[in-house]
Amino acid sequence: MYKRSTLWTLIMTITLTFALAACSSGGNEPANQGTGGNTTTNTVDSGSGGEGGDVTLRLMWWGSQTRHDLTMEVIKLYQEKNPNVKIETEFTGFDGYWEKLAAMVAGNNMPDVLQMNFGEYMTQYAGKDVLADLQPFVESGTIDVSKINEGLMESGQANGKLLGIPLGMNALTVIYDEQMLKDAGAKVPDLNWTWDDWKAAAEAVHAKTGEYGTQGFETGNVFEYYARQHGQKLFNDDATGLGFDDQLLADYFQMTFEQQEKGTYPTLDVIMQHEAIEDQLIVHGKAPFDFRWSNQVVALTKAAGRPLKLAPLPGPDTAKGMYLKPAMFFSISKKSQQQEEAAKFIDFFINDVEANKIMNGERGVPVNDEVREAMAADLDETNKMIFDYIDLIGENSSPIDSNFPPGSSEVLAALEEVNEQVMYKQLSPAEAAAEFRERAESIIARAK
Amino acid sequence: MAKQLTSEALPVDLPGVKRTRKKTKDTDNLTGYLFIMPFLVGFIALTVFPVAMSLYLSFTDYDMLGQASWIGMENYQRMLTDDNKFLQSVKVTFFYVFTAVPFRLIFALAVALLLAKVMVMKGLYRTLLYLPSVIGGSVAISVMWRQLFGNEGALNSILAQLGIPTVSWLGDPAYAIWTLILLYGWQFGSSMLIFLAGLKNIPASYYEAAQVDGANAWHRFIKVTIPLLTPIILFNVIMQLIQGFMAFTPSYIIFEDGRPLNSTLLYVLYMFQRAFTFFDMGYASAMAWMLLLVIGIFTALIFKSSSYWVHYESEGDK
Questions:
Q1: Burial B135-161 (b: 16+ CB within 10 A, else e)
Q2: Which of A23, A267, A426 sits opposite B261 (nearest CB)?
Q3: pTM of this prediction?
Q4: Interface pTM (ipTM) of the complex?
Q5: How many other C-beta atoms can be found within 10 angstroms of the C-beta atom of residue A430?
Q6: What is the DSSP letter of B164?
Q7: What residues of chain B lie within 8 A of the CB of A122, using their CB?
Q8: Sign of the dihedral through C-alpha B200, B201, B204, B209
């Protein structure tokens, strides 16, 4: 019924096709499906019919739909004010952004202005020398940074160059449901609260309602704070290894593990099933605390539909642990032919009151002090709370650590995995701390 | 027609004309190459070149931003001796392939046997049963799977109603991979259609003859259906094995990082992480070639074994 040879040919053909597809695309294709391939290339129509477009700038960023819409409006405004400039935009979600950017760098096709992230990403791109030094533009006054917090400006530096201009300010925060805490007779957090207060409040709520006492933590962020408040750092000063003792990490694991065993801290499968912002435990009144970045508070409050409040992370030594983080940067490609024009756009983006009113703090609290004051009057409740919180942290914080070694994104991923092993009781806190050190050191050594 | 053939065949025997004919043949070839040029260009630029490039990159340290630097066999060495996560992904993938593939094939065959008996609305049933294969890789399925197997999901509600203790299907490392295996089995459509076609090709007279000889339904299945279906089974086994080794999407969209505890870290998912999360392109390329090697070995083994169990009717007396 079937000739052996025919079958052979058929199978070999299909096998080869599959196998070749495996090595050539290396899983790239499914990824595009997964993220919905939501990259969009666009040119904002300035309404002037494209007349006199002497300069064309390419601009790329990541973000949500809200950010895309608002940024497009800002660009429209810029083009109205500068009819000779035409801005082409490309944007995508955070997931696909770094793949896209890396491919652009490899293909020698970087946009003129691009959004850059603090920490491991900045370290990586600084090491490759593909970003322009912006110091000359600051010195010439093209980019005015005089109204920006100096510590924040430092975060854009790497290898002695200024590689990014911060676009907004962020800080870690504890979002809490005041009503839920009061109902349980728990203490409401303030500037001086401590980890013990956090535990007591979480346990009180859990005992009273049977709900969780807190949302789970993003290990990297919260542990970094924990290390800083204890006078240590995630990475050492010359970025060649870890900057804390094993005991400290073991203590941290012990603390969260104990809370999980008491039922106040959700198990990982619960955390995993409540990942989207509208599914968060605090949104549904299933936990009184949530630890996250302050620029996510707007979305969280909107999803919850009721007022939530902000506090710094638990003490002691809150000010040593807390820091202001640049929410993101704009950087300029080193190969850009129009760095001057690109710099002008960045200056407009951070210093123009109207532009910042349009953005409405979507990229974090505006960095320019005067812009912030000008906006204060028209802010809604939630944004006012966030602005006040950032001011409070500005006075009660220490400079951000920017000593991320190459390979640090993999180190942070390993930290998350080791944390999983503790929570699933595969490793004791002490074993996990030792295991993490071993893995982290081998990753850093390899990435050098 | 016949005349034409003769007049064309004639010059072949004449030595003087032979050269002209050869020349004609060359132009014929050129025309041929021109015709397949669009394909060739695409094939070389989009397939041959990337494949060769990936082989080269597998011997380098390359992060896309800088230059690729030659490090010889280091990627392969690290893979086999110094990467626990790689070994974990291999373990997960083997378990997945050798559980999910038989599961899907048996399921597909069972459904095909049933469907072969259906006489009314065949097309409708076939379409409905094939549907899961079409929508399989979509994000909607990941949402549905989370709804079904979530802690407060449909399955747990049913179990709770029946008084059976509930399980965290997605959160427990012992169960998480089974939800993926189930998903793979559920997308049995293409194998089923191929089985169905195979079943239709078995002449009814064989069954009648067997029946006359007193064979019951089971005997007919074992002695007639299965042997005559072996070429189809061979085809399906190989295709599914390859697909199984290359599975990526379900794990990526349901469990993201291979959680919990890397229990759903399929090989290709880890390869993707190395390439696009850590920009370790050289290592990821090496992993791709390793995968090709493994798939090649398994395919070869199955082909080798096929002479013992695959029955080709046309060579029946062999």
A1: eebeeebbebbbebbbbebeebeeeee
A2: A426
A3: 0.82
A4: 0.78
A5: 16
A6: P
A7: none
A8: negative
